[in-house]
């Protein structure tokens, strides 16, 4: 009943911020969450992988996920850190500009979003991470767009408050860039039954 996700990029792309935003949004909605990060040896430009596990019941996953059923891909670099760990048929939400450079995967459910182009159009290329997390939330229904916005606002420090409006627009733009619930998370449909003890 857990939903597990890798977020893969390079240092400086906001990978860990995406992971934290998604995790905090799930907590806001009363879910159980495991969040961890894997880093390369560079401050910027090295490998950065965020892992998020979300569940309606207490999480049982290991701190370092051996595999996952979904991936947000911001770069084709360092693919060896996540590609071999994707389960067959994993949902892959990728930045549109990198798709041609992604290695072959086993029967992926591939969705692309022009996150960087959308963010640039909003006035901040750096908001691409917020675009793609908004898209992931809408695509899967794992958290609402409103909760993602609330989670983002809770994390932004005082000296970066000037970015709140753009980040919020980016999250909503990402949600609007995909087909809602095209790849719904299974437990989202059974949460009520879990809470009432009606799941066999």
Q: Describe it for me?
A:
The chain is α/β, with parallel strands linked by helices. The chain has one domain (3-195): Pyruvate-ferredoxin oxidoreductase, PFOR, domain III (Pyruvate-ferredoxin Oxidoreductase, domain 3, 3-Layer(aba) Sandwich). The protein contains 6 helices and 6 strands; from the N terminus they run E-H-E-E-E-E-E-H-H-H-H-H. Strands 2-3-1-4-5-6 form a 6-stranded mixed β-sheet, with helices on one face. The radius of gyration is 16 Å and the shape is globular. The two termini are 12 Å apart. The relative contact order is 0.17. The model is unreliable at 188-200 (pLDDT under 50).
Q: Can you lay out the helices and strands and say which pair or pack?
A:
Layout: E1 3-10, H1 15-28, E2 32-39, E3 47-55, E4 68-73, E5 86-95, E6 109-113, H2 115-121, H3 128-140, H4 145-155, H5 164-176, H6 186-195
Parallel strand pairs: 1-4, 4-5, 5-6
Antiparallel strand pairs: 1-3, 2-3
Helix pairs in contact: 1-3, 1-4, 2-3, 3-5, 4-5
Order of strands across the widest beta sheet? 2-3-1-4-5-6
Structural class: alpha/beta
The CATH homologous superfamily name equals Pyruvate-ferredoxin oxidoreductase, PFOR, domain III
Share of helix, binned: 25-40%
**How much is the average pLDDT?**
89
What name does the CATH topology carry? Answer: Pyruvate-ferredoxin Oxidoreductase, domain 3
| Unreliably modeled segments | 188-200
| CATH class (first level) name | Alpha Beta
Head-to-tail CA distance between termini = 12 Å
CATH architecture: 3-Layer(aba) Sandwich
């Amino acid at each position: 009943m857990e939903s597990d996700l890798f977020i893969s990029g390079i240092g400086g792309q906001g990978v860990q911020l995406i992971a934290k935003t998604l995790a905090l949004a799930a907590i806001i909605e009363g879910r159980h969450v495991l969040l961890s990060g894997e880093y390369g040896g560079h401050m910027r430009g090295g490998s950065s992988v965020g892992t998020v596990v979300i569940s309606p019941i207490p999480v049982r996953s290991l701190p370092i996920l051996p595999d996952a059923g979904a991936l947000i891909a911001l770069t084709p670099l360092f693919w060896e850190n996540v590609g071999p760990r994707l389960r067959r048929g994993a949902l892959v939400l990728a930045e549109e500009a990198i798709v041609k450079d992604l290695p072959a995967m086993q029967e992926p459910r591939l969705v692309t979003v022009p996150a960087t182009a959308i963010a640039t159009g909003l006035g901040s290329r750096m908001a691409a991470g917020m675009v793609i997390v908004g898209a992931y939330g809408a695509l899967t229904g794992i958290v609402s767009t409103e909760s993602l916005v609330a989670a983002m606002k809770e994390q932004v420090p005082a000296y970066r408050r000037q970015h709140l409006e753009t980040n919020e627009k980016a999250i909503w733009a990402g949600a609007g860039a995909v087909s809602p619930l095209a790849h719904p998370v299974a437990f989202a449909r059974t949460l009520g039954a879990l809470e009432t003890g009606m799941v066999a």
